[in-house]
Amino acid sequence: MHEEPVRLSVNGTAITAAVEARLTLADFLRERCGLTGTHLGCEHGACGACTVLLDGDAVRSCLMFAVQADGSEVTTVEGIASPDGELSPVQSALRECHGLQCGFCTPGFVMSLTALLRDNPQPTDAEIREGLSGNFCRCTGYQGIVAAAHRAAEVMRATDSPASTGASPR
Ligand code: FES
Ligand code: FES
Question: What pTM value is reported for the model?
Fold first, then answer.
């Protein structure tokens, strides 16, 4: 079985591995790195549960091969809180505004919202819904999630805090 070398940073930790070219980034993160916070729902780019940050951009890790992340900085939901466990503004707001129920979709929403609020600190309702249009939630509904986005943006503007308190790439 032929394997390709891959070197990348995951949540601030340098990782070198040899992987089959067909291994997805999602499976690499879950199975090789043990980072099972990146969830797999549809596995074909529709649900957003597998969203991670790749060099700061929100991407669906089920649609990428691990070898395509060679040389990149990847942040998963495990890298969003601070090392001592302090939740990021997005995570705190989702909890405060009841933006989750079963939690399956939540890691994907955390990553998408983290990228969205970094790029747009004061989004409108429409901009939030557009920014989250690639993330599906099957049980909570979206009102609490949109409210959480506004709340996180408000907190971040008031405290000048970054979207991520952890190993954010930028
Ligand atoms: S598991 Fe990747 S988009 Fe659904
Ligand atoms: S909280 Fe259950 S699918 Fe979103």
Answer: 0.94
| Beta strand segments in the chain, E | 4-10, 13-19, 51-54, 57-60, 73-75
The highest-level CATH class for domain 3-79 is: alpha beta
Domain residue extents for the chain: 3-79, 89-160
Ligand 1 centroid from CA 145, angstroms: 19
pLDDT, one tens digit per residue, over 39-80 is 999 999 999 999 999 999 999 999 999 999 999 999 999 999
Distance from Cα 101 to the centre of ligand 2, integer Å: 5
> Could you tell me which CATH class the domain 89-160 is placed in?
mainly alpha
Confirm if 45 and 60 have CB atoms less than 8 A apart.
yes
Q: Tell me, using a 6 A CB cutoff, whether residue 95 lines ligand 2.
A: no
